[in-house]
Amino acid sequence: MIFSELSLIEKETGLKYDPETATLSGVKNGVPVVVFDNDKKHRFDIVCGAVITERQFGRIYIMAERFPKKTMLGIENVDGCVNIYCKGYNLMQENLPLLIEFLEKLTAYLKSEMRKTTPIQVAKVLELEDYAILTKHIRSDGTVRPPYNIRGTVKGILGGLLGLLIGCAIFVVFIMMSDLVGWIGGIIMSAAVISLYTVFSKKLKTVDCIMTAILTFAGWALSNGFAYLFQIFLKEQEAGNTVNINGILADLTNYSMKYTEIAGNLMNRLIVTFIFVVAGAIGSYIFYYKHHTKDMY
């Protein structure tokens, strides 16, 4: 028989306390949940059988704002469950009402955001007794930052490069058709880079936003630059001159002075397409955050 403060909140939480394992378990708001009094690690380990993405962890941290400072140690996805680690002595006795409130908000949030539920094995939860949090990257608010996924970023960059090639090809076609519709190609190119980046990396964190922005900007510059060179090439072909892209690049200054109208259009196009490349990027980010959060990770 193990006494735990968790036994004092059975009625308030609607969960059942097991004195043999020091766990409070059951289904709350349609979500399987187990709270383990991990005395060996001086923690309360909360395990919820819900499949969510790590991007939604921020909302869970916000729910714990009323906890005593540095109570929340970390959150992670493990075997389709959400594991939340809290300092046990920070939530005992007078702070138990905060735990009750947190469990209510947590399960209600998970029910609205989860992709599906996952059965919880109490035996697996008890194994947390020997589990030490290895990630020691502490944020300013005392929470633990999960380890960085380098492999996902590398995959994302490869996907982003593929999106850049496809997007640039479409972008150039639109620019060559008409300067007026070039902005449509800018939106498509941005969406292609960001979409394929996220499909390959299965994540979109700060570093990924920076990398997709770099790739998108590179695509904008390459597309407009190639369209400019190709327009000069077509003008030379119409004039009966034999020339290639390398030849134009080697004598670009003279060609630019020769075709001032094309150069003037390029400057206008750069400004217009840049605006819509940025708009396309912002739109793609919003789309992924709103519609793909349950498919990430």
Automatic annotation (TrEMBL):
<keyword id="KW-1133">Transmembrane helix</keyword>
<feature type="transmembrane region" description="Helical">
    <location>
        <begin position="157"/>
        <end position="177"/>
    </location>
</feature>
<keyword id="KW-0472">Membrane</keyword>
<feature type="transmembrane region" description="Helical">
    <location>
        <begin position="183"/>
        <end position="200"/>
    </location>
</feature>
<keyword id="KW-0812">Transmembrane</keyword>
<feature type="transmembrane region" description="Helical">
    <location>
        <begin position="266"/>
        <end position="288"/>
    </location>
</feature>
<feature type="transmembrane region" description="Helical">
    <location>
        <begin position="212"/>
        <end position="234"/>
    </location>
</feature>
<protein>
    <submittedName>
        <fullName>Uncharacterized protein</fullName>
    </submittedName>
</protein>
